[in-house]
Design a protein that fits this description.
It comes from Magallana gigas (Pacific oyster). Keywords: Receptor. One of its GO terms (cellular component) is plasma membrane. With about 210 residues, the chain is an all-alpha fold. It has helices spanning about 1-25, 35-45, 50-55, 60-65, 70-75, 85-120, 125-140, 150-160, 175-210; strands at about 65-70, 80. The chain folds into three domains: about 1-120, no CATH class; about 130-170, no CATH class; about 180-210.
Amino acid sequence: DLRFFLLILVVFILSFGVTYHANLYPNAPQQWSVLKDVLYYPYWQMYGELSLENIEGKEPSEDAGTCTKNETLWRLGKMERCPEKSFLAVMVMAAFLLLTNVLLLNLLIAMFSDTVKKVHDNSEKEWRFHRFSLVYEYYNKPFLFQPLNILVYIFWPFRRYFCKEDSFRKKLNEGDREALSKLQREAMEVYRRSGWTLEKDKIDKETQTTV
């Protein structure tokens, strides 16, 4: 679940980051630093660092001489480039915050809740499976330690030949299948009756509460 959620989150961050960068810094040169700038705004905005001055294209830093819009200067690397004013970038930020802080967070909670419910529903089945694996593992292990366990391996063919009945058999005969099928039907009927009883009690309680 977490891998699937992180994949969706990366898609959102990259898509909105590219939109931010294309509107705030149009015609930017193709450099590896662009990838850092693409990830910077959307990633930190998820934690509340909105950088509204840059998103809205305000220029207090240009007056202070820390950035410039002169293409010659920022292309030569002498000064940082100031962001452009873009109303679309503000709208994109509003949509990004809504999707990440509300929808994606609720999606993560829903995915984890569904996983916990599935684990809880299958917990008894998983326990029975692992218990069977443990019992079957020790059933096939020789009871003598090494090197005396070689005697057990020598004895096993005789036991297989003279002891036809295996108490740990995997295949059932016809009588065992009928008995198992009857047991399953009886268990299903008991479960169905208990469900009806619980539903009837629930309806009675709701009726009494309403009255």
